[in-house]
Amino acid sequence: MNFMSVDDILNMAKSRTSVRERFNEIAQHNQNPNTNPNCDDDEYLANLLKVLKIKSLVVGVGGAGNNTVSRLEDMGISNAETICINTDAHDLYYSSASQKVLIGKERCQGMGSGNDPSIGGEAAKEDRDRLNKILNADIVFLTCGLGGGTGTGAAPIIAEEAKKNNAIVVTFCSLPFKSEGVQRSVRAKLGLKNLADYSDFLITVPNDNLLGIVGKIPIIGVFNIMNEVLIRNIVEVVNLINNCGLVNIDFADVKRIFVKKEKYPTGLVGIAESMGDDSDLIEKSRLALNNPLLQPDTSQVQRCIVSVTGDHTLSLSKVDSIVSTITNGIPEEAQLKFGVQNKPDMGTKVKIMVLASGPVSPYVQAAVDSDNDSTPINVFGF
User: Fold this and answer.
1) Cα–Cα distance, 233 to 5 (Å, whole number)
2) Mind listing the domains of the chain with CATH numbers?
3) How confident is the model at residue 97 (pLDDT cuts 50, 70, 90)?
4) Is the dihedral of CA 269, 274, 276, 278 positive or negative?
5) Which end of the chain offers a freer environment for a tag, N or C, measured as fewer CB atoms within 10 Å?
């Protein structure tokens, strides 16, 4: 076997090949001839880990998506790079991200898409080559708001380019309030239909669901809460993929949840934090599974991952109570795996995260099954 230099390894780690292809390449090299040929030494394993590091991108598209990524960047995120993509140069300038991309310079001239998804789509198509080159990752988290122009029109094109690079595409999108009118809802439905074609895992958060939970607080607080929910979900999934636990969940486990198998992309994610007493653990386990913002049909769960995080005092009985509660809330035939992570600063608190495939959002199903071309409503612009 040939020996690979450090530069070779770093170049491979940055390459656009899939994690499996990177593994197969390095597996043929770097066996130290001075050690037992039937064993792998630490130097070889260290090089392998550099190549196998999961490449994660968090991409915000349009105004809402840029706001989420900016907040995420301000909070700090490890194990992932951030990208803001927009047609509006002003909004993009004031956003925060590792990288920024102004799309549709010819079509939009930096002035935005004018609430027109067709212009947002044209802007993304104008920059397909650039988008394809930057969407170099094993997993792409896409976030946007639907119903406007750039997020609705460009996000599906961006998801498509990510899929061309064999990335897993996990999409978090918000849907407009009913009070915003029929046309905005129709535009959102069209965007959701197009996103469903290129998303493996699709989480839709209807803004109307916020009304029943935090409807009486100031509107700026409502949108801050929405951002926090999206950010927390993304951060926890990224950490789940990259961090080792006492009982570990690896990328292969998460990939089985994410990969789209049927007509509709599915998705359930829920996070709750318990103070640690027995009754609260059960209540918060149910809350994580039955996320009130998503209102999922848990009877559709096919695969489920439960991640429990606590400090060194977290007992086996508490973990068992959490896992049992969630097991009792999903079908008997559903496959479940749990993991445990230690975080010293948790104190008595216990964080519960549920990630599952199977539940199809009624909004996704309605969008995929719809024929938007037949609607008499003008979905473009005002």
Assistant:
1) 38
2) 6-52 (no CATH), 56-237+363-374 (3.40.50.1440), 268-359 (3.30.1330.20)
3) very high
4) negative
5) C
